[in-house]
Amino acid sequence: MITIPVITECCAGIDIGKRELAVAIAVGPADKEAEIKTRSFGTTVPALTGLLAWLRQEGCTSVAMESTGSYWIPVKNILETDMKLILACARKHHPKKGHKTDFRDAMDLAVHQRHGLLTGSYLPERKIVEFRDLTRRRKKLLGHLRSEKNRIQKVLETANVKIGNIVSDVFGVSGQEMLQALLDKAPLSAAEMAGMAKRRLRLKIPQLTEALQDHQMNDHHRWLIEQSIEHSKLLDLQTEALEKRIQSQLQPCQKQYELLMTIPGVKETTAAGILAEIGPHMEQFQTADHLCSWAGIRPGNNRSAGKSRSTHIKKANKFLLASLVEAAWGAARTRNSMFERKFRRWAKRLGRKKATIAICRSLLRVVWAVLRNDRPYREPDTQILRALETAKQVHHHARRLRELGADETAVHALVASVLENSASEASPGNAKAMPTAELSAGKHTESPRAVCSPKKRPTARGVLGFRIRTAPKEQYSVEKELSAGAPSQGRPRTKPDQKKQNSKPSSS
Question: What kind of architecture, by CATH, is found in domain 10-114?
């Protein structure tokens, strides 16, 4: 008979509900069966204060509860000052069908906690929780803003305004001016509205004229678009205020924020989202694999009777996963980076979707190392990585030769010869070659990557009030130019042949 030792002599389990809490206390000596005491409480502050007083009276020091929605947070706010809280995942401790009651769930939590069988979830400190609320709200607001802009484009399509086929960003500088002319019922022809195009878009004036020719916009379409514009401007202003507050909340962890942006594919928004979800310090995650497991970015383990049923990743922190997927797209497109080579190699065998998730896992391991070591990301040397890949293939084929009965001495000499050649090629210019033992062990040198400060882009808005994308060194505002005079018409691009002709000296 297996006996599970008792870790805590007096502990409590709470089944969380919106209006009522079922509480069970397991108390008794470690060498005897526990005595179970149950009581129900409300969820208001006076009721929770009474719960805390009862737990103190019984001598309880540890409380376990399930993470049911957001209803556990009010309980945590009252009990965290005096009690050790364990937040357990409800899916891991689901009772059998037909044996489910609130008090039975509370008793099971108390008994499991008494024997130390519960695994607590990661509970960040209050400042990180508040920072997480800001980054998640920004993601929601940006989603609502995209939805509202899509509604405007849908109305434009129904009104036979096809500028969305020509302009990549309908709500840029040129698109906002054309849309404002349509809403104002300005007596302008299609060619005159197309002439509002700026810079490179002026090369597409004939296509814009055709897209605006004989449009069918009426007062009904204008009213719908104006409604969406008012809502979009409100969302845009709220997003801008939210971004300023996020930057102020980032001040305590500004160093970690800048270190994360040394990783390929990780920029300002992604770095802030990652910090908000995992925190700036890695003491709560002992290894990189622990962090990947908590984030749910690891292959599933579902084997039974020697068969693997599913290896899909589990459902975990969807906000962290979304930030990592965005970073993986950028990292896989970064030229001459480790992630680009990994993505191309994995995409051939796994497909692009699974390769993207694999890049997310690789990125998260790099994030853990950067934050744990408090050092910027270092890109491995390309030539050394090629030598490591060569060494891997050499050892694979050497093992196959041994399985086929090849002479061990000949195989060993061949492997040593090939590895020495690859090590010498990996260090050109008579530099110190990497030893064969380091190639076999997978060690490699790294080139440092400079810490980059976040780029502060100036805020500029079009005539409709939406923010427009601007270059870091150049501020462009339609409102400023309209106040100075007529809007700039831009300068058409010069063809390469014309540039060569202009650069030739005159014969005179």
Answer: 2-Layer Sandwich (3.30)
Q: How many CB atoms lie within 10 A of CB 322?
A: 14
Q: How far, rounded to the nearest angstrom, does the alpha carbon of residue 505 sit from its chain's CA centroid?
A: 54
| Residues 16-73: tens digit of each pLDDT | 999 999 999 998 888 888 889 999 999 999 999 999 999 999 989 899 998 888 899 9
Residue 440 clears pLDDT 50, i.e. is over it: no
- CA 185/CA 59 separation, integer angstroms: 76
| CA-based torsion, 318, 320, 321, 326: positive or negative | positive
Cα–Cα distance list, 418 to 46, 395, 405, 406, 426 (Å): 76, 10, 20, 17, 12
What residues form DSSP beta bridges with 84? Answer: 62
pLDDT in the model for residue 500:
44
Exposure string over 169-189, b if 16+ CB within 10 A, otherwise e: ebbbbbbbbbbbbbbeeeebe
Backbone angles phi, psi at 24, to 5 degrees: -130, 135
Does the pTM of the predicted model rise above 0.90?
A: no
As a whole number of angstroms, the distance between CA 360 and CA 270 comes to 12
CA distance 23 to 485: 72
Burial 363-400 (b: 16+ CB within 10 A, else e): bbbbbbebbbeeebbebebebbbebbebbeebeeebee
Domain ranges in the chain are 10-114, 127-249, 251-302+312-380, 382-444
The closest alpha carbon to 132, from 326, 320, 277, belongs to 277
| Phi, psi for residue 26 in degrees, rounded to 5 | -105, 115
Over the chain, what is the mean pLDDT?
82
Q: Sorting pLDDT into bands at 50, 70 and 90, what band is 226?
A: very high
Domain 10-114 and domain 127-249 have a common topology:
no
Tell me, what DSSP letter sits at residue 164?
G
Helix or strand or coil: residue 267? coil
Give yes or no for a contact between 136 and 269, defined as CB atoms under 8 angstroms apart: no
The C-alpha atoms of residue 130 and residue 279 are separated, in whole angstroms, by 12
What's the CATH number for 127-249? Answer: 1.10.287
Q: Is the pLDDT of residue 247 over 80?
A: yes
470: nearest Cα among 480, 482, 457, 481: 457
Q: Could you read off the pLDDT of 139-156 as tens digits, one per residue?
A: 999 999 999 999 999 999
Mean pLDDT value across residues 352-359? 93
Least confident of 179-183, 334-338, 385-389, 391-395: 385-389
